């Protein structure tokens, strides 16, 4: 990531302040790298201080300074404290990328109330807390802003992940709604929906399921975190200044052809 080619020039983000949630691993880590190398001042957060320390030192080894603040996006006080640090450190915020999230694969019929709630809390309520806090900051400082929410391709549901399908659909329709409500505040709100992307997050999925992930799209391969990061850069930046309320699917065509079973394909559908 220190060397990889970037599709955009290095002017787009020079001196912009960008907050990326969940930046220590996977797609978030690619985002932090690409933004830092594009000249942005990057702030990130996550629950694990150890993972954030590792990220910070990896970037520092290549001359990039990143502010990484342990924060659980489900905790409203922690989110407020995170946002309070930014003006102090960087003077402003230009772009928020809500990438933090996660779920576990399980048949909907077996989900406990608490398990379902945990995923809604993380992906819908946590993301909303970040969105609203950012919007209030931009309103109160009378400055423009841009939000990118990393969601998922929910058009055909997400088999074996009903909780996250519900949460991501919630984020998509929240985004469409506030894209209009917040336009008078000069805030754009868009979503990037990754297909199946090879990240650390895959560790929690059964081997049987993982063997089939490449067949979730007509390219017959997994996506790469960098491919999602570049899409976020495009839609979050001035390169897409006339775009708001949009969902950019980056899934190798998976919304058109392919199957994704997070728990493996049941016998009923086999053959
Ligand atoms: C986004 C769409 C993806 C679609 C699928 C794509 C398929 C291929 C993708 C492979 C690549 C990865 C995709 C990713 O999304 S990667 C991101 C994955 N990363 C993570 O999921 C990590 C973050 N996840 C979590 O932190 C947790 O899973 C979560 C937030 C959901 C819960 O955290 P919390 O700390 O609140 O959890 P608790 O331990 O307190 O448990 C709360 C209840 O949830 C139940 N639970 C938790 N884990 C499981 C499990 N593995 N199986 C069943 N139930 C689980 C837990 O039992 C609690 O409920 P109860 O009190 O009733 O027991
Ligand atoms: N990979 C894929 O195929 C797909 C991924 N996505 C979504 O893209 C995003 C990134 O996924 P990916 O990179 O694969 O997964 P990872 O698990 O690698 O990354 C998720 C990051 O979010 C952080 N995080 C999770 N919950 C919280 C929380 N409550 N507060 C703060 N940080 C949190 C994690 O750090 P920590 O555990 O330290 O908090 C972690 O660094 C997620 O929202 C994911 O669901 C969507 C579709 C497909």
Automatic annotation (TrEMBL):
Source superkingdom: Bacteria
Subcellular location as annotated: Peroxisome
UniProt pathway annotation: Lipid metabolism
Coarse class of the protein's main subcellular location: other
First-tier enzyme category under EC: oxidoreductase
One GO-annotated biological process of the protein: fatty acid biosynthetic process
Molecular function per GO: trans-2-enoyl-CoA reductase (NADPH) activity
Gene3D superfamilies, alphabetized: NAD(P)-binding Rossmann-like Domain
InterPro entries associated with the record: KR_dom, NAD(P)-bd_dom_sf, Peroxisomal_t2-enoyl-CoA_red, SDR_fam
Keyword list, A-Z: Fatty acid biosynthesis, Fatty acid metabolism, Lipid biosynthesis, Lipid metabolism, NADP, Oxidoreductase, Peroxisome, Phosphoprotein
Residue ranges annotated for the Ketoreductase domain, each copy included: 16-201
Pfam families reported in the protein's UniProt record: adh_short_C2
SUPFAM superfamilies: NAD(P)-binding Rossmann-fold domains (SSF51735)
Reactions this protein catalyses: a (2E)-enoyl-CoA + NADPH + H(+) = a 2,3-saturated acyl-CoA + NADP(+); (2E)-octenoyl-CoA + NADPH + H(+) = octanoyl-CoA + NADP(+); (2E)-dodecenoyl-CoA + NADPH + H(+) = dodecanoyl-CoA + NADP(+); (2E)-decenoyl-CoA + NADPH + H(+) = decanoyl-CoA + NADP(+)
Role description: Participates in chain elongation of fatty acids. Catalyzes the reduction of trans-2-enoyl-CoAs of varying chain lengths from 6:1 to 16:1, having maximum activity with 10:1 CoA. Has no 2,4-dienoyl-CoA reductase activity.
PANTHER family linked: PEROXISOMAL TRANS-2-ENOYL-COA REDUCTASE
Family statement drawn from the similarity comment of this UniProt entry: Belongs to the short-chain dehydrogenases/reductases (SDR) family.
Self-association and partners: Interacts with PEX5, probably required to target it into peroxisomes.
Protein name: Peroxisomal trans-2-enoyl-CoA reductase
Organism: Sphingomonas panacis
């Amino acid at each position: 990531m220190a060397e990889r080619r970037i599709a955009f020039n290095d002017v787009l983000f020079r001196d912009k302040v960008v907050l990326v949630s969940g930046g220590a691993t996977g797609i978030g880590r690619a985002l932090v790298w690409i933004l830092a190398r594009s000249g942005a001042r990057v702030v990130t957060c996550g629950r694990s201080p150890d993972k954030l320390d590792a990220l910070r030192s990896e970037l520092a080894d290549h001359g990039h300074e990143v502010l990484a603040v342990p924060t659980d996006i489900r905790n409203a006080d922690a989110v407020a404290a995170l946002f309070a640090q930014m003006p102090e450190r960087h003077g402003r915020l230009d772009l928020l990328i809500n990438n933090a999230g996660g779920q576990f694969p399980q048949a909907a019929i077996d989900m406990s109330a608490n398990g379902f709630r945990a995923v809604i809390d993380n992906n819908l309520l946590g993301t909303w807390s970040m969105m609203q806090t950012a919007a209030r900051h931009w309103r109160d400082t009378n400055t423009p802003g841009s939000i990118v929410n990393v969601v998922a391709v929910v058009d055909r549901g997400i088999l074996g992940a009903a909780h996250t399908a519900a949460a991501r659909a919630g984020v998509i329709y929240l985004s469409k709604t506030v894209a209009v409500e917040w336009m008078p505040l000069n805030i754009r709100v868009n979503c990037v929906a990754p297909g199946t992307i090879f990240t650390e997050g895959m560790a929690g999925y059964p081997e049987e399921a993982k063997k089939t992930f490449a067949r979730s799209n007509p390219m017959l391969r997994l996506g790469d975190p960098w491919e999602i990061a570049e899409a976020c850069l495009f839609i979050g930046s001035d390169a897409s200044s006339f775009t708001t309320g949009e969902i950019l699917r980056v899934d190798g065509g998976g919304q058109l052809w392919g199957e994704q079973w997070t728990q493996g394909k049941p016998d009923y559908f086999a053959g």
